Amino acid sequence: MIPAAAEAAASKPRNHAIMENTMKSQPTDGTWSVSNGRLVRIVALTTPAVVICGVHRIGSKGGKANGDALANAYLLSAAKEMRAALGAILHEIDIEIDERQTSGLNENWKGLKVLSDAGHAALAKAKGR
C-alpha cells in the first residue's frame, strides 16, 4: 500500500517541486539589461553581474540576431519593472472600481473591472500562480 503523501507526490508533474520552489522565490535583484553580443542575454547589473537567461536566435544559426530575439530580450529585461508597475496600477484601479460601485451615482465600472481582471491574471502568471 502506498502512503497518501507518496501517492500525492507521484500524481504531481515531475517538475512540480521545482515549480513550487520557484513560485516562492523573488526575481533576481538589480536592474536587468540586454547584453547583445555573440549571445543575447538578460543580465542583472549587480556586482558581480548575474546572467538571468539567454534568448535563443532560433533559425539564425549563429548569425545576426533577428528582431524577434531582441524584442523578446528587451521585453524580458523590463519584466521586473513592469510587474511592479502593474501591481501599483492595479491597486489604484481596484480602489476606483470600489468607489464607483459604492458611490450611489451608478457610475460605469464594468470596463475597468474587465481590465483589472486581465491585469490580475497577468500578474498572477508573472508570479507563478
Give a verbal description of the structure:
By secondary structure, this protein is of the alpha+beta class. The protein has two domains: 53 residues, no CATH class; 47 residues. Helix content is 53%, strand content 12%. It contains five helices and three strands, in the order ααβββααα. The chain has a three-stranded antiparallel β-sheet, covered by helices on one side. It starts with a helix and ends with a helix.
Outline the secondary-structure elements.
Layout: H1 4-11, H2 16-24, E1 32-36, E2 40-44, E3 50-55, H3 67-77, H4 79-102, H5 110-126
Antiparallel strand pairs: 1-2, 2-3
pLDDT average, as an integer?
Answer: 79
Order of helices and strands: HHEEEHHH
Q: Order of strands across the widest beta sheet?
A: 1-2-3
Q: Could you name the ranges where pLDDT drops below 50 across 5 or more consecutive residues?
A: 9-19
What is the domain total for the residues?
2
Rg, Å, rounded: 21 Å
Report the major sheet: 3 strands, antiparallel
Cα distance spanning the termini: 33 Å
Number of strands: 3
The amount of helix comes to 40-55%
**What characteristic shape results from the CA principal axes?**
elongated
Helix-and-strand structural type? alpha+beta
**Could you tell me the strand content as a percent range?**
5-15%
Number of helices: 5
